[in-house]
Design a protein that fits this description.
Blueprint (H helix, E strand, L loop, with lengths): L8 H19 L5 H11 L3 E10 L4 E13 L5 E6 L3 H29 L3 H4 L6 H10 L2 H14 L4 H14 L3 H17 L1 H16 L1
Antiparallel strand pairs: 1-2, 2-3
Helix pairs in contact: 1-2, 1-8, 5-7, 6-7, 6-8, 7-8
């Protein structure tokens, strides 16, 4: 098994940004545990490779089938590996579990906010609540939804990561998985150097102007 690549200073910072943002999105119920693992592994350079062929128990085929895994060796020598669903039934099962897991996490987060009055700005940011976004998704065409993904990414505003994660989750709730993959890919690009980096840059430039 190949070792995970040694990251440059820039890529290391990017990976840390991804991991930090993933932890927060998981807490808010906007990413599942599986999505977080895949995202973190890819940020660290893990590659998707064929695993050993397994016997296909359903068909009894002696040739079996090849599964896929994200894998690599961490710097401490420990194995990093995650199975990737390949068959239609495997993907459907993972998607169904993902939706249920995230819904339950969002309910817990909403309850916490209601009871403690904390993080309300993140739960009800800029473009309004999750429910409002879900209503919009239900009234938009596929073309309009795809355009919305690009607009959120291109705008790259203060809350772009939360906005994109909410939009992705709404698409998943509605079973629009191809569009949700577009949103997921855009979310990955934003998480690496998006929200936190842009805010930091703006604050730094303001400080220089005052001097």
């Amino acid at each position: 098994m190949e070792a995970l690549p040694t990251l440059s200073a820039y890529d290391e910072q990017r990976a840390r940004n991804v991991e930090r943002n993933n932890a927060r999105l998981f807490e808010l119920g906007l990413m599942s545990a599986f999505e977080v693992k895949v995202s973190n592994l890819k940020a660290r350079g893990a590659r998707e490779v064929p695993a050993e062929e397994e016997e296909d128990s359903a068909s009894g085929s002696e040739y079996g089938r090849t599964s896929m895994r994200l894998q690599g060796l961490a710097p401490d020598g420990s194995e990093v590996s995650l199975s990737i669903p390949q068959t239609s039934s495997e993907r459907l099962a993972e998607q169904a579990a993902r939706v249920i897991e995230c819904r339950e996490a969002r309910l817990r987060a909403a309850k916490f906010v209601a009871e403690n009055g904390q993080d309300a700005a993140e739960m009800e940011n800029a473009t309004a609540s999750y429910e409002h976004c879900l209503m919009r998704v239900r009234t938009m065409s596929s073309k309009a939804l795809s355009t919305r993904v690009r607009r959120i990414e291109n705008a790259a505003g203060k809350h772009c990561i939360i906005k994109m994660a909410v939009f992705k989750s709404c698409l998943q709730d509605e079973g629009l998985w191809e569009l949700s993959e577009e949103a997921s890919e855009a979310l990955e690009r934003l998480k690496g150097g998006g929200e936190e980096k842009k805010i930091e840059t703006k604050q730094t430039s303001k400080g220089k102007k005052k001097k």
